[in-house]
Here is the input.
Amino acid sequence: MSFWNDGGLNQLARAGDLAGVRRLLDSGVPVDFIENGRFSDSPLMEAARGGHLEVMQLLLDRGANVNHADNDCFTPVTAAGGSGQWKALRFLAENGGNFEYVDATGNCGMDYLRLCRSKQMRREIEDIISRRD
Here is the structure.
């Protein structure tokens, strides 16, 4: 139980440890386990920030909230975009990530997407979002 309290799931998601994340989820750790404290990053946010697509898929398969917002209004989308994890950003677009939520820096997912240097990747993500509307 103490592993839950020290943010073990978040740490494993941040590291991209698929087997470790699966083990904790299988043991009963809630998929959207939030650590106490100033920041309330979800495991999906941590995995998105690191671009760990397999961990992200596992978390979503287990019911993670794709649009969880922390205390500063950061979401998996803004975490991935702010970290330049464009494949993770595309994955989140494909899975219902909201690109309109504005974080504490005043940016939303679309603002971060404009920073993507790959015109092809940017276009792919924009196309995914436009098809959802």
Observations:
- The chain has a mean pLDDT of 91.
- The CA atoms of residues 13 and 47 lie 5 Å apart.
